[in-house]
Amino acid sequence: MLLVTQALEALSQQAHTAAKQGITQEQFQKSVDMAKFPAQTAGTDGTLQRNFDQYFVPTVAVRAYREAKEGPLKDEN
């Protein structure tokens, strides 16, 4: 659980920095650096690592960026 919290905090920090710099959501999604987390969360399982990169990061990055721009979100998405 601690690794998930660390991953979410890292994304949030990156999103806030990007929003302050005027970086667009699309630019932010391309620049997110989560390289240290797949191996920590998925071990050596390549499929789990790809799932982290392909599903977790993009989804959470969008939400983190929106929260950085809009404040706490009240929607279900």
Describe the structure.
This protein is mainly alpha-helical and 77 residues long. The protein has one domain (2-70). Helices cover 74% and strands 0% of the residues. It contains four helices and no strands. The protein has helices at 2-20, 25-31, 37-42, 46-70. The longest helix is centred in the C-terminal third of the chain and has 25 residues, at 46-70. The mean pLDDT is 90.
Any descriptors?
0% strand; elongated; 77 residues; mainly alpha; 74% helix
- Beta-strand fraction estimate: under 5%
- The 3D shape can be described as elongated
State the order of secondary-structure elements, H for helix, E for strand: HHHH
Measured as a percent range, the helix fraction is over 70%
Question: What count of domains describes the coordinates?
Answer: 1
Topology:
Elements: H1 2-20, H2 25-31, H3 37-42, H4 46-70
Q: What is the structure about, briefly put?
A:
The protein is mainly α and 77 residues long.
